[in-house]
Amino acid sequence: MIGVHGRRALLGGLGLAVLMAACDNTTPAPGPAPSSGPVGGAWDVLWSDDFDGAAGARPADRNWIFATGTGYPGGATQWGTGEVERMTDSPANASLDGRGRLVITPLRQGPGAGSWTSARLETRRTDFAAPPGGAVRLEASVKMPDVQGPAAAGYWSAFWALGAPARQAGATNWPHIGEWDVMENVNGRDSVWHTLHCGTPVGGPCNEPTGISSGELPCPGCRTGFHTYAIEYHREVTPEELRWFVDGRNTFTVRADKVDPGTWAAANQHGFFIILNVAVGGAFPAAFGGGPTAATKPGVPMLVDRVAVSMSARRS
Q1: Terminus of the chain with fewer CB atoms < 10 Å: N or C?
Q2: b/e map of 266-305 (b: 16 or more CB within 10 Å)?
Q3: CATH number, domain at 218?
Q4: Which residues cross the membrane (predicted)?
């Protein structure tokens, strides 16, 4: 997010004042998007989900868990970001559509900003990591919620990843354990944000809670069709790099020499788990036009056609 998505349950007592400072297309994007590629190796698919299954079914339990409620046990309320929805495991909020896609749908259950429900899915695996001398790539084919203007107020869709230690009960170790925001979109804007969160909760080498961010990047057509969003962590180059991509185009890069070696290692040199969710409200939408209102339209989903993790180790 503008650095505030990292947040999610891990910011503890930080207030929103601090945080504020800081597409149903029938032709999904084909296959993995290209990239600049790893040096001295090739990509091997480590893990993937194509969301095959009957309409209304749950996504595969072997791959995903639902994070429910308004925060992690022992963590900050409202997922640490001020968002107002309650995450559920109801098929109404997240299920397969029978066409090889995951559908995550925010719904309004009654009057008031706090009556929203949605879903947040996290991979069971927390070991998606770049080996020393190698690289890892996380990618997803996503169609953002196709909603605009006042009807989109408060929508916050995301494909992102947290460092494995974030899943510890009562964890308050954000952001130094790392967060990779691969795709974030708010309020129906034709744009996308990429962000690395690291360092200390306020200020520090990573300018938290904003993080090291691409800022708002134009993303025409990202609401109305599927596009492939990816991040690659390259440890086979010096200095190491994080590279973000939209449809194979390198849209943002952060090099390890941007921060001190300890901060970089703590944020990146370990396993991650992937998160897919649509939040409602919170500091990020508020910073770009406001949260949900009576005009916000419920029931506009984020669609995910495929998620994959690929790795490369240097070949001798």
Answers
A1: C
A2: bbbbbebbbbbbbbbbbbbbbbbeebbeeebbbebbbbbb
A3: 2.60.120.200
A4: none
Residue 307: what are its φ and ψ, rounded to 5°? -130, 140
Q: What is the rounded CA–CA span in Å between residue 271 and residue 288? A: 32
Reported pTM: 0.90
Are the C-beta atoms of residues 90 and 120 closer than 8 Å to each other? no
Residue 119 lies in a domain: yes
Tokens of 50: 């194509």
Question: Per residue in 43-89, pLDDT tens?
Answer: 999 999 999 999 999 999 999 999 999 998 888 889 989 999 999 99
SS3 175: coil
Q: What is the number of structural domains in the chain?
A: 1
Question: Which residues in the chain show pLDDT less than 70?
Answer: 1-37, 39-41, 169-172, 314-316
In a domain, 305, yes or no: yes
**Which domain does 160 fall in, by range?**
16-23+33-312
Nearest 5°: phi and psi at 16? Answer: -65, -25
Which residues fall within 8 angstroms of residue 299, CB to CB, at 6 or more apart? 105, 106, 107
